[in-house]
Amino acid sequence: MKKLNRGVAIVGAGMSKFGAFPGRATRDLFVDAFTEMQGSVDKGVDVNDIEAIFIGNYSSDLFEGQGHTAPFMTDAVGLTPRPATRCEDACASSSAALRSGIMAIASGMYDMVLVGGIEKMTDLPTSEVTDTLATASDALYDVPAGYTFPGFYASIATAYMDKYGATPESWMSVGIKNHNSGSLNPKAQFGQRIIDIMADKKKGAEKKGKPIPTWADEMEFMHDPRANLIIAWPMRLFDCSPVSDGAATLLLVSEDIAKNFSDNAMYILGSGQASDVTLRYRSDLTTLSSAKAAAQQAYEQAGVTPQDIKVAEVHDCFTVAEVVATEDLGFFKAGQGFEAAEEGITSLRGPRPINSSGGLKSKGHPVGASGAGQVVEVWKQMRGEAGERQLEGDIDIGLTHNVGGTGESCFVHIFGRK
Amino acid sequence: MKKLNRGVAIVGAGMSKFGAFPGRATRDLFVDAFTEMQGSVDKGVDVNDIEAIFIGNYSSDLFEGQGHTAPFMTDAVGLTPRPATRCEDACASSSAALRSGIMAIASGMYDMVLVGGIEKMTDLPTSEVTDTLATASDALYDVPAGYTFPGFYASIATAYMDKYGATPESWMSVGIKNHNSGSLNPKAQFGQRIIDIMADKKKGAEKKGKPIPTWADEMEFMHDPRANLIIAWPMRLFDCSPVSDGAATLLLVSEDIAKNFSDNAMYILGSGQASDVTLRYRSDLTTLSSAKAAAQQAYEQAGVTPQDIKVAEVHDCFTVAEVVATEDLGFFKAGQGFEAAEEGITSLRGPRPINSSGGLKSKGHPVGASGAGQVVEVWKQMRGEAGERQLEGDIDIGLTHNVGGTGESCFVHIFGRK
Questions:
Q1: Is residue A180 part of a domain?
Q2: What pLDDT is attached to residue A214?
Q3: Cα B285 to Cα B373: distance, rounded to the nearest angstrom
Q4: Is B35 in contact with B16 (CB distance < 8 Å)?
Q5: What pLDDT, on the 0 to 100 scale, is given for residue A215?
Q6: Total number of domains in chain B
Q7: What's the rounded Cα separation, in Å, for the pair B228 and A309?
């Protein structure tokens, strides 16, 4: 990766609530995110100065029967006739949009660009959502063989358990942790601690006069096959991120005008991206080589090391994915990430907090919006605006790690101050 | 539009045959295009020097059940683990990819980028193809109202006829012209003159012992409702581009290294893009304001006028669209494009040739590949490699005009020598 011809800063960020919104259109969620972004610009912005729009979206085609979504989102926020393009790399689509926005500004083509991410998944029945997501893997070979994403990540988890001695409890500890953090995030789709979900379920059962479940504690709940269904062993319900609707937006400007909008802008220090073959060709299932390559590019470009990262949002589409990510990013050595999760090292108040937002697991995973949503969390943490989940200390360098498919694409971005 | 931080050149271009290829996968067509591109680089290229891939594709999701197509295409040509992103703007998707490639190089991020376009549409029944294409218009309002693209362009045609006095024969003259040119293009899907199609049909009818149609000449054939079905009046079968499979690729490098690959490279002089609202909100149906805006940007950036353009590939998804394009691009005044077509001014040997390749009408319209395919034609014409359809004179400046939907997106690119 060479040096960009000019620097890029983020001066605004916003997101819709993530969740299931049957009565609302995707463009409504996009307007929510855009409005919050607009309000977040410290010194204000005339949004008419936005020159181009890049929208990350996985498949509004299959989810909503809507292709060509970028100009419609552009119209929804009153920015027609500005150029609008959709970027797609499966669940990393809005990181692709961010990277396109960065290049657009660095190229000299534009000074101000809107980057967005959108996805509305809940209009389809869940089984069809699973099929739709499966099309991010190879439709010629993987899909006809019956592989879906829970199966793919279950393969990764079993390979990891076999190689490093992790247990199903290792994965559960990630889910519990992320719901703990997500309970402090008002935008989260499932913003409840698992222990509270358990209590609620008990209460509901009492109300209906049904036998009260005997779940004595969180881990017992997590082992109960009625409460925590096995989806694809060892991945159970609470190991899987939900099906979500949501949108997120970022306002990018060239570095030289950033101070016009904020004295507290967030600068792009590094942007890495790599691709990979599908899972069936890989020599090692316990790591994503695309993540390692993208991380190396981003670290080198930023001139920082994993130890410098104060806030990290990583792609926990499944709990095992978070553990693998923390190793691929160099936070832990290969085979040690699961113990870090079990020991609370990656919890909100631990020494290496991961996914302070609640992650995709708790916050929600509207796939095309997830990458931009990660950046919104880093933005809030770096500005000290994360409320009850605010990380301690000076949060001066942040990172996002966003995976497409099972790592056929991966993006790592690093952000800092200047 | 500001000046790019560095210039960009195209040093290689290739395309698969366009057509219906039921036995072949999209990646096979992409390999065809890639292989031809590789062979087209005058001084040779080590394709391992390609640093990133941008793939234009409208909806492999709906056409093939394949999302996340960029890394799979990348794998097919042996370029994993390079970063790979899909760009989408409906039928202008590979122009979006081209523009992303230009910005990627101009940003300083990369020196060599592969731009591709792919679409495989013929695996679906034609009725489902029409529905799939319709999703490029507004799925909340236009699609439920029953609008499909033939209907949209029929509306444009009737509005144009009402305003300027064109007739159905005006549109037919575009179809006849483009099939004449396409008959000289070995890559064309329907590379036959309409008069020859007519003769073949007669022969077929004779063989089957059926009454021989009395089509006396081309126009009579064009008026025969059995030979030339009314699809959405005044758009008949021979006014519509076909359903196609195909792929095209372009090799982009930074201007400062272009001479390492060719002394006859094609340089990007201008790149324009604009968006628009859907048809139902527009005050005038006889022009695409996004095309006008994109053209203005591209002309200004290139410092040229419409009169300077020697070769132009424009988006004739329907015959009427070509006429509107030639006016939006400033080749003719509003309301005069249809007469230019009728009078042969836009024919291959006319003073203002349009769509020497045969256009989408004859060459085929694999939507995500069409924009890159247009560039391949400009590449061949500018290098004097267009065979029997080679335009006369020094073809030093070329243009492509690529529309998404009914102009919710439009791209105009201008190419020249340096």
A1: no
A2: 45
A3: 27
A4: no
A5: 41
A6: 1
A7: 66
A87 catalytic residue (yes or no) = no
Nearest to A140 among B6, B25, B139 (CB): B25
Interchain CB contact of B408 with A (< 8 Å)? yes
Please give the Cα distance from A409 to A407 (Å, whole number). 5
For residues A226 and A347, the answer to whether their CB atoms sit within 8 Å is no
| B75 touches A at CB < 8 Å | yes
Q: CA–CA separation, B367 vs B354, rounded Å? A: 19
Query: Quick one: how far is CA A162 from the chain centroid?
Result: 27
Backbone angles phi, psi at A318, to 5 degrees: -135, 155
How many helices (H) and strands (E) would you count in chain A? 14, 11
Contact B222, B172 (CB under 8 A): yes
- CATH number of the domain where residue B70 is located: 3.40.47.10
Percent of chain B with pLDDT over 90: 86
Quote the CA–CA distance of A371 and B125 in Å, as a whole number. 36
Mean pLDDT of A119-143: 92
Q: Answer whether residue A276 is part of any domain.
A: yes
Specify whether A365 is catalytic: yes
Task: Give me the amino acid identity at B135.
Answer: T
CA distance B411 to B122: 26
| DSSP symbols for B184-241 | T-TT-TT-S-HHHHHHHHHHHHHHTTPPPP---SHHHHHH-TTTS-EEETTEEGGGBP
Render A124-166 in DSSP notation, one character per residue. S-HHHHHHHHHTTS-TTTTTTTT--HHHHHHHHHHHHHHHH--
User: Does residue A298 lie within any of the structural domains?
Assistant: yes
Contact A330, A305 (CB under 8 A): yes
Task: Give the type of residue at A132.
Answer: T
SS3 content of chain A, % helix, strand, coil (to 5): 40, 20, 40
A368: pLDDT strictly greater than 70: yes
Domain that holds residue A71: 8-125+242-416
Nearest to A372 by CA among A36, A144, A134, A137: A36
Name the catalytic one among B87, B315, B317, B365: B365
What pLDDT, on a 0 to 100 scale, did the predictor assign at position A272?
A: 98
The three-state secondary structure class of A10 is: strand
CA distance linking residue A38 with residue A41, whole number of Å: 6
Neighboring chain A residues of B137 at a CB cutoff of 8 Å: 68
**Distance, CA of B116 to CA of B70 (rounded, Å):** 9
Which amino acid is present at A8?
V
Interface of B with A in 127-156 (CB under 8 A): 132, 135-140, 143
Residues of A within 8 A of B139 (CB-CB) are 64-66
In a domain, B213, yes or no: no
Beta strands B397-404 and B409-416 are: antiparallel
A17: its two tokens: 């609530």
- Please give the structure tokens belonging to residue A410: 């991966």
Q: Nearest-CA distance from A31 to chain B in Å?
A: 16
Mutant choice from A8, A275, A412 vs B, greatest count of B C-beta within 10 A: A275
Cα-flanking dihedrals φ and ψ of residue B351, to 5°? -70, -20
Q: How far apart are CA B278 and CA A221, in angstroms?
A: 51
Query: A72, B408: Cβ pair inside 8 Å?
Result: yes
List Cβ neighbours of B207 (8 Å cut-off, separation of 6 or more): none
Task: Give residue-wise pLDDT tens across range B334-392.
Answer: 999 999 999 999 999 999 999 999 999 999 999 999 999 999 999 999 999 999 999 99
Query: Which chain A residues contact residue B289 at CB under 8 A?
Result: 81
> Which chain B residues are closer than 8 Å to A106 by Cβ?
5, 106-109
Count other C-beta atoms under 10 Å from residue B35's C-beta: 15
pTM of the predicted model as reported, rounded to 2 decimal places: 0.96
Residue A71 has pLDDT above 80, yes or no: yes
Tell me how many degrees the CA angle A173-A178-A181 measures, rounded to the nearest 5.
130
pLDDT at A212 over 60: no
Residue B88 in 3-state DSSP? strand
